[in-house]
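Narrative progress, year one. The postdoctoral researcher (J.K.) led the effort to move from monomer predictions toward full complexes, under supervision of the PI. The following entry was the first complex the group processed end to end, covering 265 residues in total.
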Amino acid sequence: MYVLEIENLTKEFSKNGRKFKAVDDVSFTIDAGECCGLVGESGSGKSTIAKMVARLLPPTSGTIKLLGEEITYLQGKRLRQAYQKMAMVFQMPKDSFNPRRKLGSSIQEVMTNAGIHRADAKKRTLELLDLVELKREYADRFPHQISGGECQRAALARALAGNPQLLICDEATSALDVSVQAQIVALLKRLQQELGLSYLMICHDLALVKNLCDTVVVIQGGQLVETGTADAVIGNPKQAYTKLLLESVFPVDPTETWVLPEYPR
Ligand SMILES: Nc1ncnc2c1ncn2[C@@H]1O[C@H](COP(=O)(O)OP(=O)(O)OP(=O)(O)O)[C@@H](O)[C@H]1O
Ligand SMILES: [Mg+2]
């Protein structure tokens, strides 16, 4: 069974009174324990796909199956149950924490909301901090009292509070400097191995995708242009668009100029 199965997913938006497809008939799957990279230039529809999978945005058409169950149009209690199986991590972790709340309390809340007893949730919060290699005393800190990398670790701890099988990361490491990025990548890899997590990893950095992902989905203008193992797609791209994306990261000739994908907004 696939952890995630997306079929013919489409999202229409209106721009200046005209409809356009930000995501156009996209289908792909993610296996258990697999890390799938979603790549494409700015505006190609990556975040829109992630938001639809996380049910933050309703699709125009198509289906999304999580662990074999169709979740596309779930509501109420069944939607909340489906939510337990996946979590999302964003680019700016500080924006996703309540600034007036201690980190421990924000992490704990995920569990108490799911009906877990307060004392158990508190104990588990400390274990989650261990898991992401943050000192336990960080539970008593506020978001502004920790660094960006530490905050991303705390965001991961909170994402893992519901024991999800799928983690959706939208540029989760893009705002961090290179050495901190490497530490978060190492942590993501370790969590993948230890917890058997699957990832849908949106990432501008194709070198990082090559290092971290098992499979890659390339999208352009909302459409899927190429998919396969990371080795095949990045090592030997079939489509011109993928080659162009790659060449902007791994230039063949450094004196040549390439069309660079825009920096994420
Ligand atoms: N809520 C919205 N209403 C209208 N248009 C939208 C909305 N959200 C996204 N779009 C448009 O849909 C297209 C895809 O946007 P999306 O955010 O998915 O791109 P992206 O691949 O994540 O880009 P980036 O790499 O810059 O984050 C863009 O043209 C964007 O302007
Ligand atoms: Mg985006």
